[in-house]
Design brief:
There is one protein chain. With about 180 residues, this protein is mainly beta. It has no helices and 14 strands. The chain has strands at about 10-15, 15-25, 30-35, 40-45, 50-60, 65-70, 80-85, 90-95, 105-110, 120-125, 130-135, 140-150, 155-160, 165-170. Strands 1-2-3-4-5-6-7-8-9-10-11-12-13-14 form a 14-stranded antiparallel beta sheet, with no helix packed on it. The radius of gyration is 19 Å and the shape is globular. The two termini are about 15 Å apart. The mean pLDDT is about 90.
């Protein structure tokens, strides 16, 4: 962490060996994340409420490759996200909330620019169990049920569209002490 308590880097490990790192830089109107393996970066532009209004991705040659534009409701919740690639709009995500108090979306709808399909993701939390369902044109593609506690420890079950378990993830919180 930085002296201001902000995250300054994330290190990735593969089989106990450092595999990559993302470094963060904080400026008054933007946050920059730089990937040391690919030398690419993302710039997150902030609005006057310090919410991300735009994300621009750059390749190792400093060429912008994609953009995302973010729009919020009067409660500060994300309601629309637009994706652009090579200057053309590729898709739009719409977010819905069941109540005014809800901070996390209950439904996300993905609509590509050519409207060739519509993907809907619903998210519910009941008795501490989170269920995420992905549908494509009305047919369930996958279902994820998360049994994680407040420390993000627990298990996650992943089902395919036919209801068969295709994956299980077990997460445990590990706290490293810095010397």
């Amino acid at each position: 962490y930085s002296s201001l308590g902000l995250l300054d880097s994330l290190v990735y490990y593969l089989k106990d060996k450092k595999d990559g790192e993302i470094q963060f830089k904080y400026l008054p109107n933007r946050i920059i994340s730089r990937y040391n393996k690919s030398l690419s970066r993302d710039e997150y532009l902030l609005n006057d409420k310090f919410q991300i209004s735009k994300k621009i991705s750059f390749d190792e040659r400093n060429k912008a490759t994609s953009e995302q534009h973010f729009y919020y409701d009067n409660l500060g919740r994300l309601i629309r996200e637009e994706y652009y690639s090579s200057g053309k709009k590729s898709s739009t995500n719409f977010y819905e909330y069941e109540t005014q108090e809800q901070e996390r979306f209950s439904k996300m709808k993905v609509v590509p620019a050519d409207e060739s399909y519509i993907s809907e993701n619903t998210n519910t939390i009941i008795d501490g169990k989170e269920t995420f369902i992905n549908q494509m044109n009305g047919k369930i593609q996958s279902k994820i049920i998360s049994f994680l506690n407040e420390n993000c420890s627990g298990k996650v079950l992943i089902y395919n569209g036919d209801g068969a378990i295709t994956g299980v993830t077990v997460q445990n919180q590990i706290i490293y002490e810095c010397e």
